[in-house]
Amino acid sequence: MASSRRPGPLDWSTGLILLLVAVAMAIVYVRDGSGKFLEILSSDAWLFATMLPNLLAGCLVGAFISLLLPREVVNRWVGSESGLTGILIASVAGAILPGGPFTIYPVAGALAVMGADFGAIVALITSWSLLGYSRALVWELPFFGVDFVGWRVLLAVPLPIVAGLLARPIGRALGWKAGEP
């Protein structure tokens, strides 16, 4: 009988990443010397220190969402029984959600734990990355103009829906259970 124990914080993928980091560190140390190694290490430590507050704030947003939204609402609107409507709602939510990846992924994780459908989560993230209004207003419009951004958004509108519909059977094949972390 298969064990249903929860994986610890150090599973095989974390071990592989740690091994790759150690190998990369050794290569830089041998190739470039200790001065360059320490310069890169301090630069990376500074980057980590500046990103940590954003990451903590995003996790806090995800935690608040899981506390503020009732499970029944999440199940009704974007749960496994929501059908195409759930994917459409998730697509619209992804398009209007502000913030970067430190916000969107904790929100998606909170919705997953609360019972959101695999397809709806994929549609949310895909919509955020393709249709996010804040990025279009702040970065794309000033550089590319209305015509380019308008056509890009218009052509990208169906993609989150398609991604969500394709993700549903994949989630079922992978054994996705809504409401489990």
Mean pLDDT: 91
- Using the CA coordinates, give the radius of gyration: 20 Å
Q: What is the helix content?
A: over 70%
Which regions contain 5 or more consecutive residues with pLDDT less than 50? none
Taking the alpha carbons of the first and last residues, their distance comes to 22 Å
Largest sheet: none
Supply the number of helical segments: 7
Outline, from the CA principal axes? globular
Residues in β-strands, percent = under 5%
- Report the structural category: mainly alpha
- Number of E-type strands: 0
Describe this structure in words.
The protein is mainly α. It has two domains: 12-53; 69-173, no CATH class. 81% of the residues lie in helices and 0% in strands. The chain contains seven helices and no strands. The longest helix has 57 residues, at 12-68. The protein is globular, with a radius of gyration of 20 Å. The chain starts with 11 loop residues before the first helix and ends in an 8-residue tail after the last helix. The mean pLDDT is 91.
Please name the defining characteristics of this protein.
181 residues, mainly alpha
Task: Lay out the secondary structure.
Blueprint (H helix, E strand, L loop, with lengths): L11 H57 L2 H8 L4 H14 L4 H13 L4 H14 L1 H24 L1 H16 L8
Helix pairs in contact: 1-4, 3-5, 3-7, 4-5, 5-7
Summarize the structure.
By secondary structure, the protein is mainly α. The protein has 7 helices and no strands.
